[in-house]
Design a protein that fits this description.
This protein is an alpha+beta fold. The protein is 30% helix and 17% strand. The protein has one domain. A hairpin with a 5-residue loop joins strand 1 and strand 2.
């Protein structure tokens, strides 16, 4: 085996081992979250205390696991160097009108680094008493 092939295989092992798997969050109703697209039924806000209680475990989670838990994001931004951000509305707003226009309503955001793992879990507006 050539040394070059060794380093390529080693690099692949390192990249695939980045991040961790997350199949569920205790107390989080993933199906209810996904049913409330754009938070238009105002059901997502009820789950914020559970998300906040387990927020630290979300760091380092892979993109596919966030997709499985939270469903397709309401909005997505692609940034430089293959980084991306998912946005999930947590309160009703103008995004609930026809054509789902971008809204100033509060959003839960997941920022993914170049390796596809969560590097930040933020809210667009600070939470008040949640």
């Amino acid at each position: 085996m050539s040394i070059r092939l060794f380093f390529v295989l080693f690099g692949l092992v390192i990249l695939t081992s980045c991040g961790h798997s997350l199949t569920s969050i205790p107390g989080f109703d993933s199906a209810a979250w996904r049913r409330d697209a754009y938070a238009c039924q105002n059901q997502r806000a009820r789950q914020l205390p559970v998300i906040n209680a387990h927020r630290e475990v979300l760091y380092g989670t892979r993109t596919a696991d966030i997709d499985a838990l939270f469903g397709r994001p309401d909005e997505e931004e692609l940034n430089e160097q293959t980084e991306k951000t998912y946005f999930y509305y947590v309160e009703p707003g103008t995004q609930c009108e026809p054509r789902h226009q971008r809204s100033a309503a509060n959003k839960l955001t997941f920022h993914f680094g170049p390796t596809g793992i969560v590097t930040a879990v933020l809210y667009e507006k600070p939470l008040s008493g949640k």
